Amino acid sequence: MAHTASAPNALSFRDKFKPVMISGKEVWGIVEGGKGIGATNGATAGAFAAAGAVGTFSGVNPEHYDEHGTVIPYAYTSTTRRERHEELIAMSTQGAVQQAQRAYDIAGGNGRIHMNVLWEMGGAERILVATLEQTRGMIHGITCGAGMPYRLGDIAAHFEVYYHPIVSSVRAFRALWKRSYSKNKQWLGGVVYEDPWLAGGHNGLSNSEDPLLPQDPYPRVAEIRSFMNEVGLHHVPIIMAGGAWHLSDWEHWIDNPEIGAVAFQFGTRPLLTKESPISDAWKRRLLTLKEGDVFLNRFSPTGFYSSAVNNAFIQELRARNDREVAYATAPDEEKTHSIPFGPRNRPIYISAADYSRAQDYIAQGYDELMKTPDDTVIFVTKEKALEIHQDQVDCMGCLSHCRFSNWKDHDDYTTGKKADPRSFCIQKSLQNIVGGGDVEQNLMFSGHNAFKFAQDAFYDHGFIPTVSELVERIRTGY
Question: 0.90 cut: is pTM over it?
Answer without folding.
Answer: yes
